[in-house]
Amino acid sequence: MSEDVVVIHTDGGCTPNPGPGGWGAVMRQGDHARELFGGESGETTNNRMELMATIMALEALTRRVRVHLHTDSTYVRNGITKWVLAWEKNGWKTSAKQPVKNVDLWQRLQAACAQHDVEWFWVKGHVGVPDNELADELATKGMLEAMSR
């Protein structure tokens, strides 16, 4: 792994969906690693938690860096790499002229991405990719801690 790239794996989820949720992120650069997690005890969704994981990881970076961001969410990856510019151009409406869901988080993610050079990767979830599995465990921890508050 190159010293000048921060590799991030993220995950989020809810039980049930919608319901309480959590997010987790594993960040690595060279020999350094950082784990982040959090959650919401009220009604949230899997998609919101997936977005929060990526946002919180990117916002935790203290200087502009190259980022390889791995997510098991096609919603997040396709949203930020394919759909978000059209949504913004259309006044945050979908092609069906409906309001974009989670617009607050999409705008926050766009702002976080603008601070870094982000390359997006999709990884299949729950197939033994170590940092994806760890991000999943952190998301569960975040949800459980939020529910216990």
Automatic annotation (TrEMBL):
Its localization reads: Cytoplasm
Complex formation? Monomer.
* Entry-linked InterPro entries: RNase_H, RNaseH-like_sf, RNaseH_domain, RNaseH_sf, RNaseHI
Listed PANTHER family: RIBONUCLEASE H1
Its gene is rnhA
Superkingdom of origin? Bacteria
* Pfam families referenced in this protein's UniProt entry, alphabetically: RNase_H
Top-rank EC class of the record's enzyme: hydrolase
Q: Which organism is it from?
A: Aeromicrobium panaciterrae
Q: Which cofactor does it need?
A: Mg(2+)
Q: What is its main location?
A: cytoplasm
Q: What is its EC number?
A: 3.1.26.4
Q: Which SUPFAM superfamilies match?
A: Ribonuclease H-like
Q: Which UniProt keywords apply?
A: Cytoplasm, Endonuclease, Hydrolase, Magnesium, Metal-binding, Nuclease
Its function? Endonuclease that specifically degrades the RNA of RNA-DNA hybrids.
Query: From the UniProt record, which GO molecular function terms apply?
Result: RNA-DNA hybrid ribonuclease activity
Protein's recorded name:
Ribonuclease H
* Sites where the protein binds Mg(2+) 1: D11, E50, D72
Task: Tell me the protein family, please.
Answer: Belongs to the RNase H family.
- Could you give the cofactor binding note from the entry? Binds 1 Mg(2+) ion per subunit. May bind a second metal ion at a regulatory site, or after substrate binding.
Instruction: Quickly give the catalysed reaction.
Output: Endonucleolytic cleavage to 5'-phosphomonoester
Please state every residue range assigned to the domain named RNase H type-1: 2-144
Tell me the residue numbers annotated for binding Mg(2+) 2: D11, D136
